[in-house]
Write a structure and sequence with these properties.
single chain, TIM Barrel, 6-stranded parallel beta sheet, globular, binds S-adenosyl-L-homocysteine
């Protein structure tokens, strides 16, 4: 047993912080017994704040058209094989109506950076959703925009914004993105969103190309200082039409371990057990919850587009992964001792 790493877990539980070197050492020390030791503490921390409740979000993938060319992503603009689509306002509103009936009280609009969604188009969609469902939260995940644009969207009713930082290490960030994308702008967006008043989510992929334990330590340090309301982390899964072919071994275990670490860094955080986790392991979703996650985001996109929003290979989008399979998902979550609830599921900050 590596004593030091267990002591480090006790330290995050107590101080909600470690040094960069300590985070790196912790990541390098991952063993099954360390993982179960930290998962127990993460579950305890999460239960204290959220009890046995698991929040659900209806994910609507509004467009796979993107002006960016992130090397890891299946809908990057250079992928000539992607069959492109975008949803209209009517399509989106009807997804929300269906989701509402199924018990969803948060809708997440995610998409590529599709220039069709100007501020006026997107503000109109957001305010239509909010007037149809005033008791629901709207989360946007539409990439980098200007501060003015974020402000307009917030004023039209958007409550939350998800923008994964992707990597807190500038050099690593540059290995994942083409030159025209900037690390500084990505972080500028996150701070703007926070200042405007959104509940903000950051996050990163686990096992992304070139990622080292030192990079993950930087990500954890950033999360510790930024204290995001939400944090999306999931395994990197290759897409066959991108330059990044390989997936590293042990990503499932590392993702679950990091979910526990993040829960202890910031016990109040809203932490999804991601679709990517469910994709690499058939009980990945449940494993994420049992590591400290408290959110799941079933797919509420129209069935005809779900496969086209292909960020990575073999994405799951039917069965309990689909919003329509919510009853199945409820049963699975119940089996592991948790309960899916019909609530907005805002962050609880005491
Ligand atoms: N255009 C939006 C939404 C991006 S898709 C934005 O820029 O924020 C949402 C997330 O999917 C990305 O932030 C990325 O972390 C993740 N993702 C993209 N490609 C992936 C892959 N191959 N494997 C796993 N996750 C991926």
């Amino acid at each position: 047993m590596n004593e030091i790493s267990f002591k480090l877990v006790d330290k995050i539980e107590r101080d909600h912080a470690l040094s960069l070197d300590e985070y790196e050492l912790l990541v390098k020390s991952l063993t099954p017994s360390l993982a179960s030791y930290i998962a127990k503490k993460a579950i305890k921390a999460r239960k204290r704040i959220y009890g046995d409740r698991v929040f659900i979000r209806g994910l609507i993938e509004i467009s796979n058209i993107c002006k960016n060319d992130c090397y890891y992503c299946g809908i990057r603009r250079s992928n000539k094989n992607a069959r492109r689509y975008r949803l209209s306002k009517e399509d989106i509103i009807s997804c929300c109506g269906e989701g509402y009936k199924l018990g969803f009280r948060t809708f997440v609009l995610q998409g590529g950076e599709d220039m069709y969604y100007t501020d006026s188009v997107l503000c109109d969609i957001v305010s239509a959703i909010k007037s149809a469902h005033p008791d629901c939260a709207v989360t946007l995940s539409m990439g980098e925009r200007s501060r003015q644009s974020y402000k307009a969207l917030y004023d039209s009713g958007a409550d939350r914004y998800l923008l994964r930082h992707e990597s807190a290490d500038k050099e690593h960030y540059a290995l994942l993105h083409p030159h025209e994308m900037s690390y500084d702008n990505r972080f500028r967006c996150l701070y703007d969103l926070r200042e405007i008043g959104y509940q903000v989510g950051c996050g990163f992929m686990v096992g992304s190309p070139y990622q080292t334990p030192a990079h993950i330590a930087s990500d954890l340090k950033f999360i510790e200082s930024f204290k995001p309301d939400m944090c999306g982390i999931g395994p990197f899964i290759p897409h066959h039409d991108t330059p990044f072919a390989a997936m590293s071994a042990g990503t499932l275990e590392l993702t679950c371990f990091l979910l526990s670490v993040i829960r202890l860094i910031y016990p109040n955080v809203l932490l999804p057990s991601t679709t990517a986790l469910g994709t690499i392991d058939k009980s990945g979703r449940e494993k994420g919850i049992l590591s400290g996650a408290n959110v799941v985001m079933p797919n509420l996109s129209p069935p005809s587009v779900r496969k086209k929003y292909e960020l990575y290979d073999n994405k799951i989008c039917t069965g309990e992964e689909a919003a329509s399979g919510i009853e199945q998902l409820k049963d699975k979550i119940k089996l592991i001792g948790y309960k899916i609830v019909t609530e907005r599921g805002d962050i609880i900050k005491k």
